Amino acid sequence: MSRVGIYGYAVVTDSALYVGDRKNVWNEDGEKQYLTGISLKSTSQLSRNLGVAVKAAMEESLLKPEPEQLGVIMGSSLGSSAKIADFHKVAIESGPDMVSPMEFPSTVANAPSSLVGIWFKLKGPCIALSNGDSSALDAIALAYDEIKYNGYPYFMAGGADQLTTGVEEGYAECYGADRQLEGLHLEDGAGAALVSAIGPEDDRYKAEIIGYVNLNFSKGGDIADRMLGAIRSLLHKHEVEPGDILAATTYRPYQAIQTELEGLLEQTELAISYWNRDYNSNPNRLAANGIMSLIHAMTVQGADGRAYPYRLLFETSGSGKLSAVLMKLNFVLKLKGE
Fold it and tell me: Which of 25, 83, 291, 297 could form a disulfide with 313 if both were Cys (CB 3.0 to 4.6 A apart)?
């Protein structure tokens, strides 16, 4: 079975393009530069953002797979909410006969992955996922399995969401004061990572994925014990010493969760780093956050200044307390050269 690595990654937001460890100002001229020669008529901003992220990730990777060798797996939590809203608005206000069939493809969840395949003339598998905020990380997990166990050489994996004011208002109304989301800010975002088998003597990869556990606990019950058991099993399976791994989460819990989570991770002697899901200060880009969190897990340094050769990236969602958290994915990454 092949070793699997992450070779390149990029994230596009409302105002910036992140490629590797660089952040560039983003505008329409930049989009045209990356998507030269591609017809963008009737496509959503979500698909265009994802197209740019895929092109940038490919260039960052330094790999040049043939179209027959490269597949696409893209996830989305809400899809192109703006296109969906516009499509439904015309149908409601003017009747179904006035809706343009040309607009329909941009409203479905598989539009971004399909358009990426068409734009870049890819001939590998084309898969769309919709699994909530962890959709992009689920896409990477599926790419890992396809490469490691089925022998497929390359996948471009990631996710994208296009968010509107209406969606933001809906989030605030649903969660209300108990989630302390008064400062909630949603942005458009798309992220992509090139995942590939690591060849002999190949040192171009950024990090190796040495394993993951996919957990989907129902709310309530002994989630803390099961979470701890899953983390320990993951480390034991890959012979990772707890003192050599830095944990990073895509969700910055509120105080009740944070206190319990830190206590739990102390039992495994893991350091912990939080990123981005503090709704009161950072924008939430749903699926694209998974790629941002992947970048964070690979590049963050421990508070003690130590170089941690392994990183644990886990995805959580929920509210209030750890017993109400859904634990989704646990990735173990080994950094290159460690």
Answer: 297
The string of pLDDT tens digits covering residues 18-33 is 786 677 766 666 677 7
Phi first, then psi, for residue 37 (nearest 5°) are 80, 5
At 86-140, the pLDDT tens digits run 777 888 888 888 887 777 777 777 888 888 898 889 999 999 988 777 788 889 9
Q: Strand (E) positions, 38-174?
A: 70-75, 126-129, 154-161
- The torsion angles phi and psi of 31, rounded to 5 degrees, stand at -60, -45
Residue whose C-alpha is closest to residue 217's, from 318, 144, 285: 318
Nearest residue to 295 (alpha-carbon basis) of 63, 80, 11: 11
CA angle 217, 220, 181 (to 5 degrees): 90
Q: Residue 170, exposed/middle/buried by CB under 10 A (0-12, 13-18, 19+)?
A: middle
Structure tokens at 187: 């942005």
Residue 77 CB neighbours (<10 A): 25
Q: How many CB atoms lie within 10 A of CB 68?
A: 10
Element (H, E) at 191: strand 189-197
Cα gap 268→242, rounded to integer Å:
6
Band (pLDDT 50/70/90 cuts) for residue 6 is very high
- 117-153 burial, b at 16+ Cβ within 10 Å, e below that, comes to bebbebebbbbbbbbbbbbbbbbbbbbbebbbeeebb
Name the pTM for this structure: 0.84
CA-based nearest residue to 274, from 136, 292, 285: 292
3-state helix, strand, coil in the chain (%, to 5): 40, 25, 35
Which residues share a beta bridge with 193?
Answer: 9, 157
Cβ contacts of residue 115 below 8 Å, gap of 6+? 43, 47, 50, 51
Tell how many helices (H) and how many strands (E) occur in the chain: 9, 12
DSSP classification of residue 244? G
For residue 292, give the nearest of 139, 137, 161 by alpha carbon: 137
HEC sequence for 233-248: HHHHHCCCCHHHEEEE
- Looking only at the bridges linking them, the beta strands covering 4-13 and 16-19 are antiparallel
